[in-house]
């Protein structure tokens, strides 16, 4: 029963009128709350993402059903900005936040402003750690970085926007 309800919410929030970029945030919040409080969380996380049913775009992402791909036709985005956060997470992801420069401000939303200090949240999943961990380790706060990845909205975390998974990372200018 919960599965059917969650599927309905996902379809309603992900596949609205293509012209209309707004969606029902209350339904997304209900999905997030149910996902957080469901005993069978792991089973729900095995449900394929309707935006990526074969798991090719969100390869290696934990619980991909919680992510809404922002542009299904062209899901990858690049962002240049100021590194303000950097963490190793218990799920083996490497995460960081980048305040986008003027050319990339459209990648964030009010969730990023409120919850991430204006930063675009970025996650390197274990599938990409081998290529990117060395760069991640060398990044210093307040450096200018260029990051590329799948542009998504995380319905499980205040609907902030992310690049997840990150596939390309470069340090453009090191902090002085």
What would you note in describing this structure?
The structure is a single chain. The protein has 176 residues and is an alpha+beta fold. The protein has one domain: Nucleic acid-binding proteins (OB fold (Dihydrolipoamide Acetyltransferase, E2P)). The chain is built from 5 helices and 6 strands; from the N terminus they run H-H-H-E-E-E-H-E-H-E-E. It has a 5-stranded mixed β-barrel. Helix 1 runs antiparallel to helix 2. The longest helix is centred in the N-terminal third of the chain and has 13 residues. It is globular. The N and C termini lie far apart (56 Å).
The whole-angstrom Rg is 16 Å
Superfamily (CATH H level) name: Nucleic acid-binding proteins
Give me the count of strands.
6
Mean pLDDT: 84
The count of helical stretches stands at 5
Tell me what the CATH architecture is: Beta Barrel
How many strands, which pairing sense, and closed or not: the largest β-sheet? 5 strands, mixed, barrel
Strand line-up in the sheet with most strands: 2-3-4-6-5
- What is the fold named in CATH at topology level? OB fold (Dihydrolipoamide Acetyltransferase, E2P)
Tell me roughly what share of residues is in helical segments: 25-40%
Distance between the termini: 56 Å
Q: Helix-strand pattern, N to C?
A: HHHEEEHEHEE
Structural class call reads alpha+beta
How many discrete structural domains?
A: 1
Shape: globular
């Amino acid at each position: 029963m919960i599965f059917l309800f969650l599927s309905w919410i996902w379809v309603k929030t992900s596949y609205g009128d293509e012209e209309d970029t707004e969606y029902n945030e209350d339904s997304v919040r209900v999905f997030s709350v149910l996902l957080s409080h469901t005993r069978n969380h792991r089973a729900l996380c095995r449900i394929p993402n309707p935006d990526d049913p074969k798991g090719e775009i969100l390869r290696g992402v934990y619980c991909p059903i919680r992510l809404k791909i922002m542009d299904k036709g062209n899901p990858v985005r690049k962002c240049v900005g100021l590194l303000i956060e950097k963490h190793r997470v218990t799920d083996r992801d490497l995460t960081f936040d980048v305040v986008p420069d003027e050319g990339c401000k459209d990648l964030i939303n009010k969730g990023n402003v409120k919850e991430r200090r204006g930063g675009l949240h970025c996650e390197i999943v274990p599938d990409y750690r081998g290529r990117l961990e060395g760069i991640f380790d060398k990044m210093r706060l307040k450096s200018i970085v260029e990051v590329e990845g799948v542009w998504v909205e995380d319905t499980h975390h205040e609907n902030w926007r992310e690049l997840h998974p990150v596939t390309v990372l470069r340090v453009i200018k090191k902090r002085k």
